[in-house]
Amino acid sequence: MALRVVWLLLLWLIPLQSVVASPWESISSPSTGKSESIGTYNNGCLAGGENLPLQGDGYQVMRSHRGRYYGHQDMIQFLHDLSKKTRQLELGQLLVGDIAMPRGGRFSSGHASHQTGLDADIWLKLSDGPLSEEQLIDVQPLPMVHIKDYKINQDNWGQEQAMLVQLAAVDERVARIFVHPVIKEQLCKREWTDRGWLQKVRPWWGHYYHFHVRLHCPNGDTNCKPQKAPPAGDGCGAELASWKPKPEPDKAKKKKVAKKKKQPPKPPDQCLALLRK
């Protein structure tokens, strides 16, 4: 009952702050104990989060001042493993973006997911060597897609980017990878010895300069709620074609419907307890 009251108070305060911050953004340290992902990817939290060191073997964390480099121990290990493979194949320096906040939870803006420490953004921009601290603060994205033309940017997209996505997708810990539909199209066009991993690569708007890795709920994390498995097949046929933008109707006839803002759902009770520790 007390936890429910706390959450209602937080919901009441958020509109007064013009959604500038969420209570999770004021927490600067993870909780103690073993890593545990709680709730769903878009309504949950992270207990016992681990931080990804800002620089390691073949990778760097960007924009570390935002404090979004915490994750479940499985995600931290996955990123170490992926960067090691990337270096061995000489694909370039891996640039890691947002993972989660110290105890996960909801962002005020920018992400609906990344709440359980099982999501991470990895940029498709591969550098030849480590970037300076100054460069890492404000790294500029390298677009892989000409958005308006709905076609790949041949100057930026290449074999290295395709191999990087494949390296991540073949890992058994990975449940899904989100990329722009045009990037998915490029991956589908390539000849792969094994195409099974393409099922995990899901088209989603916005992912035109990075890809979003999502891990399965870890074994033993009974409070972690898994997402429904992707549809069968490689997703390269009618499903992918359905993402291609349709011609817009006459603007004069198109009516704008104001969307009503929804209050975020109440997090699991275990997450509310993490806010109070």
UniProtKB/TrEMBL annotation:
InterPro entries annotated for this entry?
A: Peptidase_M74 (IPR005073), Zn_M74/Hedgehog-like (IPR009045)
Q: What keywords is this UniProt entry annotated with?
A: Hydrolase, Metal-binding, Metalloprotease, Periplasm, Protease, Signal, Zinc
Segments of this protein annotated with the region Disordered:
228-277
Bias regions of kind Basic residues — which residues? 252-264
SUPFAM superfamilies in alphabetical order: Hedgehog/DD-peptidase (SSF55166)
**Matching Gene3D superfamilies, A to Z?**
3.30.1380.10
Q: What top-level branch of life does the organism fall under?
A: Bacteria
Kindly provide the name given to this protein in its UniProt entry.
Penicillin-insensitive murein endopeptidase
Species the sequence originates in: Photobacterium alginatilyticum
